[in-house]
């Protein structure tokens, strides 16, 4: 099929030809129907009136933030959460209209831009409050600075200590340029088997909220829960839950079960690029860490550690080839990996390979990949490189592809 010209493939433009579907053999398939269902399942667990913030930082945990945000909002997410101003701006530019909270600290120089795009900011000390007020003033009072007061109840990362919370809330309330839209905290170990520390943090957060109310401060949203806490108990729900990993169908930790109906959203795919015949004594790849003992066949798959297929998976992971398990042979290279062809299998160049994320095909899940390299699904999912095109599927149709040149929505 023909590839469009540079002009036709302009970033974020619509392309008539689905040229990209004929692009790189290696791609990530993002199942938007699974995502929508996950959003609905998780919302179904929340107490009445509790809203869902879809956390789409780090490019939607590697799934593609723009499409994920759009589908999550359509499925009932009331707000979006990001880590940086740039991430929030990307969502606004793509048309997201719901509240967007930048959950972490922000560089002062970025605040004007954040306000221009109506991003809410997390503030944890007086300096941050003043910086947001100054930015709002610099904009001539046309925009209110929406802030969420972050309270550190035990994470020791970002936020004010509880004893200073009322003072900061008063400081915010004293500035007409600012609106205190939320008060929040973050759990350090809600995904542990034992959630007693999360309970302590919630108790402390409750006392802070009571102090604030006693001082006449009543923010619209109190929020605390990440995925683990939201799945664990309605106790942690408050007015809003900030759910990331579970939306993508991945568990925060092995201790936390996902609700029935929640399933993985992303899977990684490729095709056999070459068949390699190994004679006894042949070694595979850098460092010659695999040596064939008998004649065997192997297949080259064009994915490597620069795609996020971690080098630590060398000699450990496997892929799904024709519904069978095909072990990784030798070291994973930057751009390529060799897998064993199971004995007797008539594999050929062009055969589909499922690298991860689709257990029905013999491939490991992203959670299993994470375990194999002593990591967590968060790191593996966010580590899938930009050069791996994301194919977005909805209702059995490929609706968009995101690659190095931008997001391309495909016409019917
Ligand atoms: C990333 C993040 C979340 C989401 O966490 P998950 O475990 O992915 O649900 C929630 N709140 C804050 C402050 C975060 O940084």
Can you put this structure into words, describing what you see?
This protein has 412 residues and is α/β, with parallel strands linked by helices. Helix content is 25%, strand content 25%. The chain is elongated and about 80 Å long. The two termini are 16 Å apart. Bound molecules: pyridoxal-5'-phosphate (PLP). Pyridoxal-5'-phosphate is lined by residues 55, 57, 103, 186, 226-228, 242-245, 252.
Q: In terms of per-residue confidence, which ranges show pLDDT below 50 for 5 or more consecutive residues?
A: 1-19
* Anisotropy-based shape: elongated
What Rg, in angstroms, do the CA atoms define?
A: 24 Å
- Helix fraction, binned, reads 25-40%
- Tell me the number of strands: 22
Listed once per kind, the bound small molecules are: pyridoxal-5'-phosphate
Look at the helices and sheets and give the structural class: alpha/beta
Q: State the helix count.
A: 11
Mean pLDDT: 94
> How do the strands line up in the largest sheet?
1-22-21-20-2-11-19-16-17-18-15-12
Biggest beta-sheet profile? 12 strands, mixed
Distance between the termini: 16 Å
**Percent of residues in beta strands?**
15-25%
Secondary-structure topology with pairs:
Blueprint: E1 14-15, E2 27-31, H1 32-45, E3 51-55, H2 57-61, H3 65-74, E4 79-82, H4 85-93, E5 100-102, H5 111-116, E6 119-123, H6 126-138, E7 145-150, H7 165-173, E8 178-184, H8 196-214, E9 221-223, H9 227-232, E10 240-243, E11 266-271, E12 274-278, E13 283-284, E14 290-291, E15 296-301, E16 318-321, E17 324-329, E18 337-340, E19 352-356, H10 366-372, H11 377-382, E20 390-394, E21 397-403, E22 406-410
Parallel strand pairs: 1-22, 2-20, 3-4, 3-10, 4-5, 5-6, 6-7, 7-8, 8-9
Antiparallel strand pairs: 2-11, 11-19, 12-15, 13-14, 15-18, 16-17, 16-19, 17-18, 20-21, 21-22
The chain binds pyridoxal-5'-phosphate.
């Amino acid at each position: 099929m023909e590839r469009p010209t540079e002009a036709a493939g302009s970033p974020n433009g619509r392309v008539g030809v689905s040229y990209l579907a004929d692009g790189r053999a290696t791609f990530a398939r993002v199942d938007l129907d699974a995502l929508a269902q996950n959003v609905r399942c998780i919302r179904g667990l929340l107490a009445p009136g509790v809203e869902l913030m879809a956390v789409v930082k780090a490019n939607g945990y590697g799934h593609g933030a723009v499409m994920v945000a759009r589908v999550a909002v359509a499925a009932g997410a009331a707000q979006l959460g990001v880590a940086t101003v740039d991430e929030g701006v990307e969502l606004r530019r793509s048309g997201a209209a719901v509240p967007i909270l930048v959950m972490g600290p922000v560089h002062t120089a970025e605040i004007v831009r954040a306000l221009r795009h109506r991003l809410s900011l997390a503030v944890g000390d007086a300096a941050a409050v003043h910086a947001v007020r100054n930015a709002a003033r610099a904009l001539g009072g046309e925009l209110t600075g929406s802030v969420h007061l972050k309270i550190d109840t035990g994470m020791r990362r970002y936020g004010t200590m509880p004893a200073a919370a009322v003072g900061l809330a008063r400081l915010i309330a004293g500035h007409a340029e600012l609106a205190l839209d939320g008060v929040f905290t973050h759990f350090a170990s809600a995904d542990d088997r034992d959630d007693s520390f999360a309970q302590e943090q919630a108790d402390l957060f409750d006392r802070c909220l009571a102090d604030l109310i006693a001082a006449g401060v009543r923010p619209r949203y109190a929020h605390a829960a990440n995925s683990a806490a939201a799945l664990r108990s309605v106790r942690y729900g408050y007015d809003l839950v900030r759910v990331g990993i579970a939306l993508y169908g991945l568990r925060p930790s092995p201790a936390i079960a996902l609700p029935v109906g929640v399933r993985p959203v992303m899977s990684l795919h490729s095709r056999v690029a070459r068949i390699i015949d190994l004679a006894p004594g042949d070694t595979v790849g850098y460092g010659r860490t695999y040596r064939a003992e008998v004649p065997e066949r192997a297949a080259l798959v064009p994915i490597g550690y620069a795609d996020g297929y971690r080098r630590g998976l060398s000699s450990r992971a496997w892929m799904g080839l024709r519904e069978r398990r095909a072990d990784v042979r030798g070291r994973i290279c930057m751009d390529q990996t060799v897998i064993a062809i199971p004995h007797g299998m008539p594999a050929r160049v062009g055969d589909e390979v499922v690298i991860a994320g689709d257990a029905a095909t013999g491939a490991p899940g992203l959670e299993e990949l994470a375990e194999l390299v002593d990591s967590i699904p968060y790191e593996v999912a966010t580590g899938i490189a930009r050069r791996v095109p994301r194919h977005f599927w909805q209702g059995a149709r490929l609706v968009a592809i995101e690659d190095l040149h931008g997001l391309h929505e495909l016409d019917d």
